[in-house]
Write a structure and sequence with these properties.
4 copies of one chain form a homotetramer. By secondary structure, chain A is an alpha/beta fold. Chain A is globular and about 75 Å long. In chain A, 60% of the residues are buried. Chains A and D meet through strand 7, strand 8, strand 9, strand 10 and strand 11 of A and strand 7, strand 8, strand 9, strand 10 and strand 11 of D.
């Protein structure tokens, strides 16, 4: 049994606790911190938490708490982490790690200096679909990865602090882009260096200072491209889709709006209130088990199993730092309209990877460009002469 | 912590144990029984089970086992249950409960006489999608339920005993129909009496004595229809789909082949072996988390929570008995080509429910037949005169 | 150029004319008959038809009309056909051919005696998806066909005469079942004799005398099963789906509600009226080109090309008669709850087809029951001893 | 009846002719030009074309040809158009209009100076799904358009000249991007000026000089973003998907790989060859009627109807020129990694459009940021103070 202090009693703190104490879990939240007494008390009552407080340090220092789970607004992550270092408590921080890579790097270095377990709670690389897709990619089902796109768009976040630039540190790039960047990076290879970023961002709809819509391209050292599409202006629910292209295959994942459950309702049936969707009549697409589909269960399983075995979890502060560094480049690019280099003071992956060689030889004199079956059932080849570069067609009966 | 003795070390015993000991579970399998020593030993090693045996009674009587989980071929269910009664152990039995309703009734009565906890492991009414859909239905989103169809078809079961009529007690009707019948019955209402069954069955492909394809209609006392479509001859994977029609809405659920994960692979990538699908190249549709999608996690959570609280779980031997009684009628119908009454010696639901009244009044003289918006944007009504029965059309501008 | 007299100016007459005069068609409607002058005039104006009349015989006898297209309520088909025989005009009749097989047979015999071109306007075996799927089936992509299901359900027909039992001759079985029966029959083989029918039907929702929901099974001489699911009570739009199972493959077709076009709208945008769907906010699934998706274009192309070449079209009165005979058996079955024989006074297909032999030999002593790849990558076989019938398992490394 | 001279007898010439002479068409190809005699003869025989030639001018000058249809490699478009001007023949040119905007502009000016009918054969803005989606967008169903993405990727073109940079003028940007740009531009508004482009392009897989993968963003004067994703390296078939986001709604269109027709085949059935897909076993997704789904029928209907009425078709050389100008900017951007301005010597749309005002007022002091229904059924508002900019939350019971 692991005993957790939950910092934050809002939307994400509740989601985490539903997962942590879900199924037949042996783990337990023993203390909860909230900025307001009312919310702390309600949370403690709802989840049978024996201790609550509005004092951050008190929750972290709580003698029964083995692991500190940080589910606070972005601007409070660093303070919480530093207190965990002080009390030598294992710590897991919600995404994004910092508001920028400077904060993230300070947290990374402090945690490593203190020698404490540090986990980065990036749930979307723990969804069951991602885990299975990732295995297929690693086993070569898609060949060499060329492009990985992740899209997260919805009509805007739930809590008010997200909309405040000071507390949040950014708009939808920081809030949603952190997911997308880590998903694409995982498919491409976490040991491949991200080198530069091009990003468009705009405030198209909302009366806010931060961006509410952005699209970015992240170029990796091996020539692969990661793409993120994020928005707080999407209409239709929570759109969570990934696509991966490789030389030998393709993956498409729809993690929310189209998972195989479809309902039409006229709305005339009594007492029905649909949850989370933008509408509650017409065709709806409920998700069976959101906690599981969104990766929370597998994420905490990895975190806690790793903690018990004194191993590193799949996602650490180091990963959170890399993501922040990529997003920093995205923000600079959105401002100055240039491809911006990713600045990485800390890098633990490969160096100097070059673009893969990829010519397919047909015979001594030709490369194979394409092979296809024609309407008439014959096999058609398109070839390129190695020396002259001339393209030719060849039909095999 | 609940300590389980697992009877059976085959496909389903392993699936159950993956779920029971999955995530951060506090529960543990403490003994395993198998018909062969080799299989028992391998299971014990794979799942860290401290005790194994090839003696059924020894596993059930094991002093540390609180709950007995029966994952044996159909012909061994009754013997196992009777031993659980003898040792007063809580018992959970995989589907179908018996090979027929006579066996099922004996198990039901023995378990209730012995006063032991009895659970019926019908996982497909515990899938996350079912649970959410069921809530919507109960909350009225679909209005009055008219029809519920459940389809389970695949290219045939894994273990050899399924293909043997004596051990299995039937073919795909018993193996798969039990799921479908309970799903439809749940949507229609478990307190509504099933009254008669019409079933077609045939052995179209496989060299076996049992049926490998069947379609059945189950009529309920309130006029609703449950439908099952089952086969061991389907090509394309595991097809698991439900449909529900109500006066105010519709539900479609695809629990396996289309859950939002799509992969294309040429198969040229090294080392890739796809699991469970019929092919491992071309377009594939992997399921992220089979254990969860198939309902095992939520099923055992209900079972064990109920056990700890000394409550009845959602599915008991009583439900298993009702399902067996419906399937008995299906087998009789397939043989004699008549609508066959469902014989229920034990019935704990409503009696004498009549078909719902369902006329929608338009005005004093007319019933409303249909209302629609025309191409021209006008509202068109089709009405029926209450006394003459005459149909007329009326357009509202 | 073919010159058409259109009998009927309602929903289906308009749909037909949109198709007949669509794209860059060389054909033209030259006369229109309607039961009311107002409707005839409006139709003539909308479609630039030079001649209109409320006299049925006048339209049919019209000297410029080469082909008569019957788009009238079911109870008027026979009269129209008899007049075409009198004037020796080519005739095409909308579905169903008759209100029952007695009417259909009279029309079939009269047309053949008169030696006139006769076409049966069953559009749904001309949809582009059906045509392509049918080719695949005929080319063996699915192996031997075991089962073909067609489903057509919606919230009820547009015109008032459908709801009147005398004019329509039946409810949703006749209106929609005629489509489904011909679709399934085409996949199974139009030369294979339908032998018996089991049908459930009920009036579950609408205040009418006819059935508003029905499910039927049609058994063919070779053991294949055709299934129809029809309803006027479905909520969610027009549900038009087919499924085919063969020993080597599967086909699923969604012809309407899920064709790859998805739209979400809050409904706040000005001036938007969605057409045909049950709702006009939330997620909608428009069909790009209804005329083409529903088969009208390919149907008339076959009809007119056949007419010009003095050949039989794919669908003739004979097919309409077979369909009516199957539906007659369905109505009898729904009433008396028995499998009812299909009575065919006219039958031009094969006779005495037996169930296909289908044992797959493994070696001299065994039949192959199933072959699969285990989790461990080994190949597992399930075999049946030819003489003892014993089932065994064999694993190939 | 319109009489056509078809220039080009390859893949696209055949596709065009299948459409032109399809259904019950009144139009006819009367002459065909090909670069090789063998191909010209075969085409003439297959399509019953009375005249063939290997002399370009002869085909254009053919006295019976009313309309010249240019289906030639990109580098031959200009020569063909100039000859049409010389002979004052109506001309329709396949996409892209030119290899660059300089060529396109010369063709535009020559055609307008000669006063001839000019059509730009961009079929993908004529697909039935596009036409319907476009109507919804124009009617306001999606509110103000924020972003429109079009994706076209496949495993590479059929004919050898595409792979040759001199003949083609570019790689997948020119070949596929021209479609995508015009689709997005249409949704956003063809009268809204495209101002700048950011594009990434690379040759990731093929042994060619041109790009085989590219992603681009096109910024319009009103702040809307058009996005294109194009590739010749995609595995899995032809991926043709569009997405549109507006303030009030969303559209997703899948025009090829998921159109509601799904087939699984083991491939053991005799004689089956699947067409166009990358595989012919496993799950396949055939398209019912490719000609119609890809827009050819509706495109030629608009072209020929416009020609007969002496009107401009929806797509003219002017549109082809705008597309070329955008693609030129994309190529420059891919090379120098900057947002590149779109240079338009000819512009006939609006000038000086500013970003739309889009603040939603809540009350005198606040703007509305977001409104949502909480888990508890209460309505929650997020507001922004007009003067202080402070974000606050307000819950309405």
């Amino acid at each position: 049994m692991i005993r957790i202090a939950m910092l934050g009693s809002g939307f994400i703190g509740r989601f985490y606790t539903d997962s942590l104490q879900g199924y037949r879990s042996r783990d337990k939240v023993v203390s909860v911190y909230s900025r307001t007494e009312k919310s702390a008390k309600k949370f403690a009552a709802d989840y049978y938490v024996p201790h609550w407080t509005t004092n951050l340090e008190e929750a972290i220092a709580h003698p029964e708490a083995d692991v500190i789970c940080v589910a606070l607004p972005n601007n409070l992550h660093e303070e919480a982490v530093m207190l965990c270092c002080k009390y030598k408590k294992a710590v897991m921080v919600t995404k994004p790690l910092g508001r920028n890579s400077v904060e993230a790097k300070r947290m990374l270095e402090a945690a490593e200096d203190a020698g404490i377990f540090n986990g980065y709670l990036e749930d979307l690389v723990y969804t069951p679909k991602f885990l299975k897709a990732y295995d297929s990619v690693k086993n070569g089902a898609l060949g060499r990865i060329l492009w990985a796109k992740s899209r997260e768009t919805h009509p805007g976040p739930h809590s008010e602090w997200f909309w405040d630039l000071e507390q949040a540190g950014g708009g939808c790039i920081l809030d949603l882009g952190c997911h997308c960047v880590e998903i694409a990076r995982s498919y491409i290879g976490k040991d491949i260096k991200p080198v530069e970023v091009m990003c468009w961002a705009d405030t198209q709809v909302k009366p806010i200072d931060a961006e509410d819509h952005a699209i970015g391209l992240v170029k990796y050292e091996n020539g692969s491209i990661g793409q993120f599409e994020v928005s707080w202006t999407f209409r239709g629910g929570l759109d969570l889709r990934d696509e991966v292209m490789g030389t030998e295959g393709t993956i498409w994942i729809n993690s929310f709006l189209r998972t195989g459950f479809e309902m039409f309702t006229t709305g005339k049936g009594a007492d029905y209130v649909s949850e989370k969707a933008e509408s509650n009549t017409g065709w709806l697409f409920p998700v069976g088990d959101e906690l599981n589909e969104l990766g929370y269960n597998h994420m905490f399983m990895d975190m806690f199993n790793s903690y018990e075995k004194s191993q590193q979890p799949k996602e650490t502060f180091y990963d959170g730092y890399i993501v922040n560094a990529i997003l920093d480049a995205a923000y600079r690019s959105a401002k100055n309209k240039l491809w911006e280099p990713v600045t990485l003071d800390v890098w633990r992956g490969k160096e100097g990877v070059s673009k893969d060689q990829h010519l397919t030889e047909y015979d001594n004199e030709h490369y194979l460009v394409k092979e296809e079956v024609t309407h008439y059932g014959a096999k058609k080849l398109i070839l390129k002469n190695k020396s002259t570069g001339k393209i030719s067609e060849k039909t095999l009966e």
